[in-house]
Amino acid sequence: MKKLINDVDDVLAESLDGFAAAHADIVTLGAERKFVRRRTLKAGKVVLISGGGSGHEPLHAGMVGHGMLDAACPGQVFTSPTPDQMLAAAESVDGGAGTLFIVKNYSGDMMNFQMAAEMLTSDNATVIVNDDVAVENSTYTTGRRGVAGTLIVEKIVGAAAERGDALAALKTLGDSINKATASMGVALTSCTVPAAGKPTFQIGADEMEMGVGIHGEPGRRRVKLGSADDIAGELVGSILKDLAMKRGQETILFVNGFGGTPQLELYVMVTAALKVLEGAGVKVARFLTGSYVTSLEMAGCSVSVTAVDPALLALWDAPVHTAVLRWGV
Amino acid sequence: MKKLINDVDDVLAESLDGFAAAHADIVTLGAERKFVRRRTLKAGKVVLISGGGSGHEPLHAGMVGHGMLDAACPGQVFTSPTPDQMLAAAESVDGGAGTLFIVKNYSGDMMNFQMAAEMLTSDNATVIVNDDVAVENSTYTTGRRGVAGTLIVEKIVGAAAERGDALAALKTLGDSINKATASMGVALTSCTVPAAGKPTFQIGADEMEMGVGIHGEPGRRRVKLGSADDIAGELVGSILKDLAMKRGQETILFVNGFGGTPQLELYVMVTAALKVLEGAGVKVARFLTGSYVTSLEMAGCSVSVTAVDPALLALWDAPVHTAVLRWGV
Question: A208: part of which helix (H) or strand (E)?
Answer without folding.
Answer: strand A207-210
